[in-house]
Amino acid sequence: MITRSFHPIGQGAFYSEEHDDRFIMVYDCGNLYRTIQSRKVVSTAFPKGSIIDVLFISHFDADHVNLIDILKDRYHIKRVVLPLLDRVEEAILISIYRTMGYSDLINLISNPQRYFGNNTKIIKVMSGNGGQETSESISLENYSGDTIRSLTRLDIRSHLWCFIPFNYEFSEKHKKLLLLFEKEGIDVNNLYCDLDFIASKYKKIQKIYEKVDKDINKNSMLLYSGPINKINTYLEPIHSHCLPTYSKHCKRYNSAGCLYSGDSNWNIIDVKKIYHKYWDYVRTIQIPHHGSEYSFSIKPITGAKKYLCPMSYGKNKFGHPSVDVVKEMKSHHNYPIAVSDDPEYIFKEKIDIAVF
């Protein structure tokens, strides 16, 4: 059995899966405001000292990573899978977090091995352009390398379940960043270590970041978690705030896979095409960017299948989740699920697996 949890983290993201062979997976861990409640949610998610077999990091926005310090202090993280950043994006993030005083996040970005310690394996996912980058499959627990290509299938010990990360490449975004920096007279090389230079250019750096912020979010690493092949799965929502009648019917479905979307932009990324080999197995889809209208497209969740669509959000000034997004999901007979900072709004699924 697998227990999948969308924790009530608020304006951020914190999701996990606990497999019956004591394998624990976590995807993202952060809250925009690092609230007392969000810190409690992380520190009580598992028994103290639990082993987290793998932590996937979608991207490095603070609301997705700024509670990882609690995660690593309270539990043992065996391995971390994160997107491989290009030099420009790494420099931008480091410079912005340096001016904001986020030393922990700077260490996470610049030297994840030092941040997590020598007992944690770091694996970086190279970017891809949306094609079939690889059909390679490896054992997650036995892999000794430090990089993998997008769409590499990471099998876990049961050999029935896998994780498939995809780090989308945006070459146009990189060109745009370089042009904007050049236009403003900013030498990217100075963003790494010249504190006086960063301080003097901070407002310009921030404006450039905000100007391409939507493009930055497109780089969120997607993750498929689900069956490798067609197997008989029974998915039961344990607790949800979707339509109350849905739980009566869910055991009819033989697809218990999940797509974790981070803050990706579905208007740019064709997630259904990227994961077309496994799409029949997907039933649960984390709606990207807290239900933002700017990151959402209905295309992946149209058709006969009804999807479970959890969205993480808390008190915010951004209008998350968008009322229009919720309405559009319902109009196509999907089930939007509120995952807020209220402890009662945790969304859990239980998955039973049987081989055909």
Structure report:
With 356 residues, the protein is of the alpha/beta class. The strands form four sheets. Strands 11-8-7-5-3-2-1-20-15 form a nine-stranded mixed sheet. Strands 9, 10, 12, 13, 14, 16 and 17 form a seven-stranded mixed sheet that branches. Helix content is 27%, strand content 27%. The chain has a single domain (2-83, 121-173, 205-354), classed as Metallo-beta-lactamase, Chain A (4-Layer Sandwich), CATH 3.60.15. Helix 11 (323-331) links the parallel strand 18 (308-312) and strand 19. The mean pLDDT is 87. It is globular, with a radius of gyration of 20 Å. Helix 4 runs antiparallel to helix 5 and helix 4 crosses helix 8.
Q: What is the compact description of this entry?
A:
This protein is α/β, with parallel strands linked by helices and about 350 residues long.
In CATH, the topology is named Metallo-beta-lactamase, Chain A
Number of helical stretches of at least 4 residues:
11
Taken together, the total number of domains comes to: 1
Beta-strand content: 25-35%
Low-confidence stretches: none
What's the helix and strand layout?
Blueprint: E1 2-6, E2 12-19, E3 24-31, H1 36-43, E4 51-52, E5 54-56, H2 62-65, H3 68-74, E6 76-77, E7 79-83, H4 87-100, H5 103-110, H6 112-116, E8 121-125, E9 127-128, E10 137-139, E11 147-148, E12 153-155, E13 161-168, H7 171-183, H8 195-211, H9 213-218, E14 222-227, E15 232-239, E16 257-260, H10 271-274, E17 282-285, E18 308-312, H11 323-331, E19 335-339, E20 347-354
Parallel strand pairs: 3-5, 4-6, 5-7, 7-8, 8-11, 9-13, 10-12, 16-17, 18-19
Antiparallel strand pairs: 1-2, 1-20, 2-3, 12-13, 13-14, 14-16, 15-20
Helix pairs in contact: 4-5, 4-8
